[in-house]
Amino acid sequence: MTDNVFLNREPANKLGHLKKAEARRKTQALLQELGIELDVDQKISALSVVQQQVVEIVKALSVEASVLIMDEPSATLTDKELRKLFDIIAMLKAKGVCIIYISHRMEELFKIADRVSVLKDGKFMGTREIKDTSEEELIRLMVGRKLEDYFPGLGNTQDTLLLEVKHLEKKGRLDDINFTLHAGEILGISGMGGSGRTLLIQCLLGVVAKDGGTIFINGEQREIASIRDAIQHGIGYIPEDRKALGIFLSMLSSLSVKDNITISSLESYLNYGLINKKKEFARAQEQVNQLNIKISGMQQLIGELSGGNQQKAVMRVGF
Questions:
Q1: Comparing 48 with 174, which gets the higher pLDDT?
Q2: Quick one: 281 exposed, middle or buried, by C-beta within 10 A (0-12, 13-18, 19+)?
Q3: I need a labelling partner for 177 at 20 to 30 A (CA). Which of 67, 258, 290, 319 fits?
Q4: pTM score
Q5: 13-49, pLDDT tens digit by residue?
């Protein structure tokens, strides 16, 4: 982790070699100053998404940046970690650091921002002093119209029981988990970081083997031992870490929008062992239109899209 924090700094000696002991000491000092507890010798790949986000912030601070851009920094932070982030922002602001804070979360902007600028589809919609504006005005600028109903009534829940989990266990982590999910229903699973939310989903998907319990889909008991099993039973997954787990960025630099949308359901486009390209393209285009994914063309690389449009592409995978 030390190397990640000081990756962009000048070499520490004339031979161009980074002085590991000095970098380690400075990293520890930075973390201690910010009240962050991390092992400086731990591999960055072993850290959680939240911890990696913290390292990125510390890295920016290590170069004593006068302008700090934070792009959705709170997306994976718990409430406690978010409060710590706000404390760090307040400390930097007091030192004269200019901060550009990008967020979809209105409540955050009203807690820390002095001014807010709104963009919509790549167009500048205006800047407001935070003390002179409201959530309603900012939302109107973002969506281009006034929203009359923030929380539409929910009346689509049906009696059909789609998913039932009984006594699911993972030794030392999950204990006697039970819930049901009906057609048209939204079930929220909440908890602090490390509480087992992601592990529970991994057990449902077959990524992690459960130690006990049963899963029923449409009233029938099913054994899900892999992602393939989950897809075949009609379960799709939108991961917390979109770039690492949700889209293909590393194959040939990045797969296309079309490939990312259809890759988990290629079997439905097979014709005598070959992919029916016309059918695959039509299905991908249908989903792009349905979710209004902003692209220049179906062959555009997924890595060139904005985070929001990447997320829309992920939402269609497996459906």
A1: 174
A2: middle
A3: 319
A4: 0.55
A5: 544 556 788 888 888 888 887 777 888 888 888 887 6
**Structure tokens that stand for 310 in this block:** 């990447």
User: Token digits for 245?
Assistant: 């787990």
Retrieve residue 309's tokens: 């449009």
